[in-house]
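Tutorial handout. Part one gives the primary structure; part two gives the three-dimensional structure as tokens.
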Amino acid sequence: MSQMFTSWRRLDGLLLFAVFLLLSFGFSAMYSITLSQGEGNLVSRQAVALAVGVALAAVMTRSNYRLLQAYAPAAYTLSVLALAAVLAFGVEIRGTVGWFALGSFHFQPVEFAKVALILMLASYFSRHPDRQASLRVCIESALLTAVPVALTLLQPDLGSALLLLGIWGVLLLFSGIKKRFFFLLVLTGLATFVFAWTFVLADYQQERLLTFVDPARDPAGKGYNVRQALIAVGSGGWLGRGLGFGSQSQLKFIPESQTDFIFAVIAEELGFVGVVFLLGGFFLFFQRILHHASSTNDDFTGYLLLGIGIVFFLQCTVNIGMNIGLLPVTGITLPFVSYGGSSLMLALLMVGIVQSVSLRRRGSSSISLGRGA
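Part two.
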């Protein structure tokens, strides 16, 4: 009993506090949204996902995370099969066939694909010590990433596909791959895009991409969302209008307020001070993951934690950026804050992985990521 208590004391309390703070913001905003939109089961459904996610995190914390390296190929294969299956058997929500319907619960397999890709790439890079001079490693890792990216694009879910590419790109840079190999792949990708734009994509597909980059081309659609979000963020002032008193959110001017634009709801109702605390929670969260990643001499552990940090950082940056008009609307949610059962459960699972590392990293020395780049 005392041994179990001692091991649990080695958990990262600051990381848990950051997650608790972010969850508190999310549930507070969702409760406020239910006051005007009549979605009384919004909070209860998210609470169920939270309970399942906490259970997954607890199991993962007590498990040895190093076993994930052996299971990485199986997880990757399962995620690819799930992404393929959802195209045939999934349900369409907001123009994207990306969810399995399990009664009233919807599971989005791309969330699992993010975790599986991180595991696969971390395992792959850690097994190739000659990666610095190997163009083969660069190409093979790109092909591993291309499969889930292509299946995600077929849904179509451009935002999640770009997020998967971002995981690979940052991990590849930190792996120590020579920059000329990386830029060669980037140029190849750009040439492929130009070819597809000229000879493959139909006019309506080109228009969708142009609207994705410039929402002002569709003022009644995505452009409208961004304008309303900007109004909400700007009207929050220093202390906000108070929970349940935001005019933009309560009068339903902000579409998808519980998911894509929940940051705008928080900014309007809790103001600048609330946003500072929210960003402070994310800063602490990222700092703890980076601390653990830089305190291990095991390549797999380092890349695993780095991949987890990347996916959270990219989601946070993209979501907040589109709420304040700096980035196009992609449908990327704010981790721990936005409504979404599968997103929350997989996010908490990744927190469990970080905590598993925290329990077992005593006595480790620093890892040098990106050596020889």
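Part three, for discussion. The chain has 14 helices and three strands. Residues 262-293 form the longest helix (32 residues).
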